[in-house]
Design brief:
This protein is globular. It is 53% helix and 9% strand. With 305 residues, it is of the alpha/beta class. 42% of the residues are buried. The chain starts with a helix and ends in a 6-residue tail after the last helix. The protein has a single domain, classed as Aromatic amino acid hydroxylase (Phenylalanine Hydroxylase, Orthogonal Bundle). The protein is built from 14 helices and 6 strands.
Length: 305
């Protein structure tokens, strides 16, 4: 079997399995390993969603697609993406071998790096994939990163995560209480990220537009989220968002609206204020589940850098 037929299909890529077995988080993008089927998957995903981007996406996203010269006919090379992206916002996409512990992910944002998956979904699962792939990460996330104000929101969020790690490492009291507080803090931050960066809606004049990457990379949900009467849409209130669980395996039934990128930045400031006041130490339980790896990534974070 040639490498061309093996490809870089999500959950079926020996290159990724080897990197994970070696304990590698950050890797290179072995572009020569993409199969013809991988490339065709990208073409199909891009072709069918582009008209919906034009109709539903925030104009800043469409500017980003143009500014990145995002190719419709092939999987992009991250080095090419970064040539366009970095001069605009200072951000770069950095290839990863899969799951990135929570603090490491957020700290990458603080340093204007976006951990980017390099595999692509199987053609049999065009509509839904529980884990991210390169179409979600590059086509869903990265165009927004070309906007300086939005990218500043990501950096600010990374700073909040760093503050959470500092706070966790200096907490007094018994270990069990420390872990419960940290778990609550991470859950609150994960929910905020989910309902803004991943599944956020924004006012644009008298309309609502999509800026969240989970919606922007989903052919079906990008329309459903704005047109279906089965979706609740409310102005974002921080006390709702940090206490609202979410599930990833179906269309979202509840979405939140921000007024602008400046409004979103101010909400991240408020998130940090609430963290400092202890208001995120006991948010409601439920999803997402915070695993031991994520907890340790905060407790063991190197805060000298």
């Amino acid at each position: 079997m040639t490498t061309q037929t093996i490809g870089l299909t999500t959950t079926k890529a020996p290159f990724i399995e080897s990197a994970q077995a070696a304990g590698q988080t950050f890797i290179h993008q072995p572009y020569e390993l993409y199969s013809d089927e991988n490339q065709e998957t990208w073409r199909q995903l891009y072709a069918r969603i582009f008209p919906r981007w034009e109709r539903y996406a925030h104009p800043k996203f469409m500017e980003g697609v143009a500014n990145l010269a995002l190719p419709a006919d092939r999987i992009p090379r991250l080095e090419d993406i970064n040539k366009f992206l970095s001069p605009l916002s200072g951000f770069v996409s950095r290839a990863v071998a899969g799951y990135v512990p929570a603090y490491v992910f957020f700290d990458c944002l603080r340093n204007r790096q976006f951990p980017t998956t390099i595999t692509i979904r199987d053609r049999a699962t065009l509509d839904y994939l529980p884990e991210p792939d390169i179409f979600h990460d590059v086509a869903g996330h990265v165009p927004m990163h070309t906007d300086r104000r939005f990218s500043d929101v990501l950096v600010r969020f990374g700073e909040v995560a760093r503050f959470a790690a500092q706070r966790a490492q200096s907490m007094q009291g018994d270990r069990h209480t420390q872990l419960l507080r940290l778990e609550s803090n991470i859950r609150a931050m994960a929910r905020f990220f989910w309902f803004t960066i991943e599944f956020g809606l924004m006012r644009f004049g008298k309309e609502l537009k999509v800026y969240g990457s989970g919606l922007l990379s989903s052919y079906s949900e990008i329309q459903h989220c704005l047109e279906s009467d089965q979706v609740q849409r409310f102005p974002l209130q921080l006390e709702w968002v940090v206490n609202q669980y979410f599930e990833i395996n179906h269309f979202q039934e509840l979405l939140f609206i921000v007024d602008s990128f400046d409004h979103l930045f101010a909400l991240v400031d408020q998130l940090e204020d609430w963290l400092a006041q202890g208001r995120l130490d006991n948010v409601s339980g439920g999803e997402p589940v915070i695993n031991e790896t994520d907890l340790n990534s905060f407790l063991q974070a190197d805060l000298t850098q």
